[in-house]
Specification:
3 domains; 24% helix; UDP N-Acetylglucosamine Acyltransferase, domain 1; nine-stranded mixed β-sheet; 606 residues; elongated; alpha/beta; 17 helices
Length: 606
């Protein structure tokens, strides 16, 4: 005999909301606790004691629900053929391919989407325009209130549906429906654990605390710096974009390394192992390079596990939209221990963490509970020192000229701190004693692709001029960089941001001010100048020099020329041999002489 649901231990509730949907009298509501997770509460005055809430609870009936008709999952590594879809997806874009087929068959697709306040809920529709909202990870628990009833209505009306969610949520859907539907495809994903919506909201609020403007767009696993860096992208109301890589993102650190704020049930998950409940299971395919290097573009490759005959038949329809290879079942387990193993317990004082979260900003709480001062062991320090010596040896080849330049233009302590100019043997360097040199990373100067090349690289910094190198920068051989008297050249962003790189024969002529942001990639034979060489024209308003500003993550293609006064916005691409004489808006692509816009809303990765 079933009883009224009663949660006495929070680990016994996965927050799937199914008990609320099955309760016809509306006796069940959900109350959010101090951690930001919701739990059912029963209004006994409305309760009919029918017991349906316990009957559909996936945690109570996990072992009964874990069944499927394939003895062993059939596994694939896969990626969508459409690169735009891959860029916009958390992994290889397979869910989008599954949804494309469903939309083509006039069916519905459902999954998690953001609300306006970046809380998360489940949503289903037959409008293909909604796919962009459904794809990509959300990193916070999703509210499914009303979703189960909506899916059942769709199925009972004879319509087809594809639904994706956490394993516990999809188990709840199976329990709610009570039978298998031929017109339903259920997909789940390898779930490490769902994070507290409250913590995620506080993390987003930290952007306004730090940068003075609220978040209007949030994207987990943005691909613009590559899949492996687990980049979170936030666009603020002031139009500025911020990228946080995994090693500097304290929300990700708390989730991945401290197991700090997943739902209590995730530490004792009932839905690990096999058989899988879903027809199709999706995951990231880490270490895909060991199976097929062609599929490793550092843009995300999906692991696909087909768990049912229905899933096999559906996947055959999806295959034409994807690049894929079949892999052994055991390979799926290697990179995804979360298939069989629950989260380890939090490595912080969780109770104190959430109490402080109500009184402090996320940044303050993160510094207290998540940030750790790195006291590296002596063995690791020795290893780092030897790597530094090897780097210097490889670049200078222990020749007298570059070694003299190394110690002439750098202080010893800066070398040990990895903040120095590192010349190649064929560098000519002339830096005035009155110049202001600020090096915050390693600046490789004259590094050759062809080891025995003698192509000269030149660096001139005249009296009173400033050369500021932010993050690590690589100027390859053949570069001619001239910073004239009292001028300023800045290259690279804050310490720890992505490198800047310039290929062979870069020319920079700076007589006033040139600023080049983080992760700017510069191809061969590019010229950047902020002056006209002291020549004047008899036209009103003419100036010999005008500052140049090149934003973060700009790609300057081969042979292009950036002329005085130009500002190039973040994420833009300047095409081959383009002559840029006017400003380039962020995330646009320009070609031609003079350069003109040929595409907009561009995302790119190197």
């Amino acid at each position: 005999m079933y009883k009224v649901i009663n949660i006495t231990d929070k680990k016994d509730c996965s927050g799937c909301n199914v008990c609320g949907d099955v309760c016809e009298p509306g006796a069940i509501t959900f109350k959010t606790d101090i951690e930001g997770f919701w739990y059912p509460e029963v209004d006994k005055a409305k309760c009919s004691e029918c017991g349906l809430c316990e009957k559909v609870c996936p945690n109570i009936h996990a072992e009964e629900l874990k069944k499927n008709d394939l003895e062993q999952s059939v596994c694939y590594a896969a990626e969508h053929k459409n690169m735009e879809v891959v860029f916009d997806s958390s992994s290889g874009g397979v869910f989008s391919a599954l949804a494309d087929v469903m939309y083509k068959e006039k069916g519905y697709a459902g999954g998690a989407i953001f609300n306006d306040d970046f809380s998360v809920r489940h949503y289903i529709s037959n409008d293909k325009k909604d796919l962009s909202k459904l794809r990509s990870s959300k990193y916070a628990e999703s509210d499914l209130s009303g979703f189960y009833k909506e899916v059942k209505n769709i199925l009972e009306n004879g319509e087809k549906a594809l639904v994706c969610g956490c394993p516990c949520q999809m188990a709840a859907l199976r329990a709610f429906l009570g039978k298998d539907y031929d017109n339903l495809i259920i997909a789940d994903f390898v779930c490490r654990g769902v994070s507290s919506p409250k913590v995620f909201r506080k993390y987003l609020d930290s952007f306004e605390e730090r940068y003075g403007s609220p978040v209007v767009y949030s994207k987990a696993l943005s691909k613009e710096f590559g899949w492996r860096d687990l980049v979170h992208k936030a666009i603020l109301a002031n139009g500025k974009s911020y990228y946080e890589l995994n090693y500097e993102n304290y929300f990700i650190k708390g989730y991945l390394y401290k197991n700090a704020y997943s739902r209590p049930s995730c530490y004792d998950c009932q839905f690990k192992g096999f058989p899988r409940i879903a027809d199709i299971t999706l995951a990231d395919f880490w270490e895909i390079e060991k199976f097929d290097e062609k599929m490793d573009k550092n843009l995300g490759t999906s692991l696909v596990m087909i768990n049912s005959q229905k899933g096999l038949a559906y996947f055959e329809k999806v295959k034409p939209r994807m690049n894929f290879i079949q892999i052994p079942f055991d390979s799926a387990l290697q990179g995804n221990p979360e298939l069989t193993k629950s989260l380890n317990p939090p490595s912080i004082d969780r109770k104190s963490f959430f109490e402080d979260l109500d009184k402090m900003t996320f940044s303050e709480v993160a510094l207290k509970y998540i940030w750790e001062k790195q006291n590296r062991p002596a063995k690791e320090q020795i290893k780092t020192f030897l790597q530094l010596l090897w780097l210097i040896k490889q670049n200078t080849r222990l020749q007298i000229k570059p070694l003299l330049q190394l110690f002439k233009y750098n202080k010893i302590r800066n070398i040990f701190q990895h903040k120095f100019l590192l010349p190649n043997p064929h560098c000519v360097i002339e830096i005035s004693k009155s110049a202001n040199i600020k090096i915050n990373g390693i600046c490789h100067l004259g590094l050759p692709r062809i080891r025995n090349s003698k192509l000269e690289t030149r660096l001139l910094v005249e009296q009173g001029a400033t050369l500021e190198i932010g993050n690590d920068v690589n100027f390859m051989y053949g570069a001619d960089i001239e910073v004239f008297k009292n001028a300023t050249l800045k290259v690279g962003g804050k310490n720890g941001s992505k490198d800047c790189g310039a290929n062979i024969n870069l020319t920079i002529v700076c007589s006033e001010k040139i600023e080049i942001g983080s992760d700017v990639q510069i191809a061969r034979n590019v010229t950047i100048r902020d002056n006209n060489g002291g020549h004047y024209i008899n036209r009103q308003g003419y100036k010999n020099t005008r500052p140049v500003n090149i934003g973060n993550k700009v790609w300057l293609c081969e042979g292009c020329t950036i002329m005085p006064g130009v500002k190039i916005g973040e994420g833009a691409i300047v095409g081959e041999n383009a002559l840029v004489v006017s400003n380039v808006a962020p995330r646009t692509m320009v070609f031609g002489s003079p350069a003109r816009v040929i595409d907009e809303d561009i995302l790119w990765k190197h």
